[in-house]
Design goal:
It is a single chain. By secondary structure, the chain is α+β, with helices and mostly antiparallel strands. The chain has a single domain (5-124), classed as Immunoglobulin-like, CATH 2.60.40. It has one helix and eight strands. It has one helix at residues 99-124, and strands at 5-12, 15-21, 32-36, 39-40, 45-48, 55-60, 69-77, 82-91. The strands form two sheets. A four-stranded antiparallel beta sheet has the order 1-2-6-5, with no helix packed on it. The chain has a four-stranded antiparallel beta sheet with strand order 4-3-7-8, covered by helices on one side. β5 (45-48) and β6 (55-60) form a beta hairpin. The radius of gyration is 15 Å and the shape is flat. The model has no long low-confidence stretch (mean pLDDT 89).
Length: 125
């Protein structure tokens, strides 16, 4: 279980920005991974925040994610394989309370659980 927290700051110019909080005050960089369609997002930037224990996260949205339908990004603490949060892009016809976003999030979480279970099986055998 991770003590890290994720807070959204803004989404503009194709970059989703957030703040990682509750990081160790030692200045050790958190191991953050952002996944899109079960692949890590490239060029994610993590920089020290204004106060100790805070880090600024910048996630550039890849061009292939700008499409019709629901696109879900999941932010993980890679050190503990804990999901910190997510954000979703919906293109095309937007529907209020769209269940597709929820299904995509469930798929992303299921993929994370499968990876953790497989790793556990390898470590215990």
């Amino acid at each position: 279980m991770s003590d890290l927290t994720l807070t959204k700051i803004r989404f503009r110019n194709g970059v989703w920005e957030g703040r990682i909080g509750n990081a160790p005050a030692s200045g050790a960089r958190p191991d953050i991974t952002v996944m899109f369609q079960d692949q890590p997002v490239q060029d994610v930037r993590l920089s020290e925040g204004e106060t100790g224990g805070e880090w600024a996260l910048a996630v550039p949205v890849p061009a292939e994610a700008v499409a019709d339908g629901v696109q879900t990004f999941v932010v993980f603490d890679a050190a503990s394989s804990t999901r910190l949060g997510d954000f979703t892009l919906i293109g095309g016809e937007a529907v209020a309370d769209d269940l597709r976003a929820e299904v995509e999030l469930l798929r992303a979480e299921l993929d994370m659980l499968k990876r953790a279970f497989r790793r556990h099986c390898l470590e215990t055998s």
